[in-house]
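note to self: dont lose this again. the chain is below, predicted strucutre after it. 386 aa total, dont forget to put it in the shared folder this time
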Amino acid sequence: MAIRKISLLGSTGSIGTQTLDVVRKNADFELVALACGRRVGELAKQIEEFKPRIVCVGDQEGAAELESLLGDYKPEIYYGMDGLIKVATVDEADIVVTAVVGMMGILPTVEAIKAGKDIALANKETMVTAGHIITRLVKEYGVHIYPVDSEHSAIFQSLNGEHGREVRKILLTASGGPFRGMKREDLERVRLEDALKHPNWAMGKKITIDSASMVNKGLEVMEAQWLFDVPASQVQVIVQPQSIIHSMVEFVDGGIMAQLGSPDMRLPIQYALTYPHRRVLDTKPLDFYELGSISFEKPDMETFKGLKFAYQAAERGGNIPTAMNAANEKAVAAFLASRIKFLEIYDIIEYAMNNIDYIDNPSIEEILETEKKVNSMVESRWNLDS
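---
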């Protein structure tokens, strides 16, 4: 039995810790590298358990703290973006799980592809902002991308054995988040703790807020267009509140393939790591008698503008998806710090998309420069730089 050697970026986050649980249950999986941001104490425990050869933390101070926490086993320790790239390109790894949050995932993913690594992709910002670059590099270096997001994994599974040119549309499901059914006047009064209560999924704070605003679903629309080579206009979002149907694909003959299952992120994680095979996993099996029914709704894109903005960004192309994503990252951070109201997230995104200088077919450098400019614009306009 060949050992599957894994590098994990974002090991202390929600996807990262669930990836570790999958590794524990598969004797032929080996973690050779780990990276995290600031949760150094948690990383130290992971090192003791999994004994990776190299690790990375966010900064030099964190690296010194980690070294002081380690026992007899001491891996190579790096920090910052250079360290993240080292973890992503470590020689031994067969596949890199990119579970870091935000645009910091772009450069490590690019370098991992150039190093010949397959990618288990959980960092949607990489495809949203640089999909035109990533898809070219994947072909050039002969590697594979296996989606880890539950929705994109469902699409990937539904397309298995099918022909891409026979796809009529992708049906991307959404739970609707904690504010499903609310109107704009309702959203004016929501609090941070309300936004963090997702009805079905256990996720990190940032993605939970993105789900509440439906920005997350908008980013997934833009990600899908690159992963599955369809225009965003052929990606239809359907609210499916029970989170049982994870997404569907409609074909030209009217047939629809769907992937269903309990809301458990370990399933798409494991499938990405074992593809094209499936393995036993202790997920809760669906009981259709108990479930009774599955319901569907049309998304309200006038109230939850994050989804509308994403379709607009996809249509305009260039660096506009980057502007949307960067503005959202800045806005969500401010909301989590209680510096803006929930609805101001939309105002910040719209402002950035309308005021950034347009760049067609941006390079990685131009993508990252767009992010810096958006951050500066938003900080100045909303007084967030202090």
